[in-house]
Amino acid sequence: MNKRAGSQMVASNNVKKLTLVLGGAASGKSEFAEKLVTATQKTRKYLATSQIFDAEMQAKVDKHLVQRGEGWETIEEPLDLGPTLKSAVPDQIILLDCATLWLTNLLMAKRDIAQESAKLVANLRSCKAEVVVVSNEVGMGIVPEHAISRQFREAQGRLNAMIAEAADNVFFVAAGLPLVLKGELP
Prior knowledge:
This protein is α/β, with parallel strands linked by helices. The protein has helices spanning 29-39, 55-68, 82-87, 99-108, 113-126, 147-166; strands spanning 2-5, 8-11, 18-23, 43-48, 72-76, 92-97, 130-136, 169-174, 177-182. A seven-stranded mixed beta sheet has the order 5-4-6-7-3-8-9, with helices on both faces. Strands 1-2 form a two-stranded antiparallel ribbon.
């Protein structure tokens, strides 16, 4: 049974085991992902990867908290997502928001991006709960001028491709509207 959620259709309990929601900045990807998760009626966990370094980021986090509403357990983890994914149980659903900030955190911590990305995908595949991952699509613009920006863009593209390969559903959100890249819109 479908119900309307904003301008998107979401199913009442039809999220696949792993769903990837891609989009640009302020595209509506997080709101769409939250609606997918909320529609399942499962126990909701929000795995937050952001780190708050300034007032702008605090305002963004506060906006997301209000947008989500009640009924979420929030786990703040900027680097080590494995324990949360490994401890999840089948009657839960996890919203990982977002893979882009997680990757940024790894880069800034000088971690091995390829190794950490492979570990994340392995943990997503073996997670007993359903998982919805939000990630930015950063490769649609110009080639960045700086080496670290190019390194990040390449790493983000590889990570998105790895998660997409493992995912049952992949959606691209533009202007608040989901486009199906893999699977089907619930």
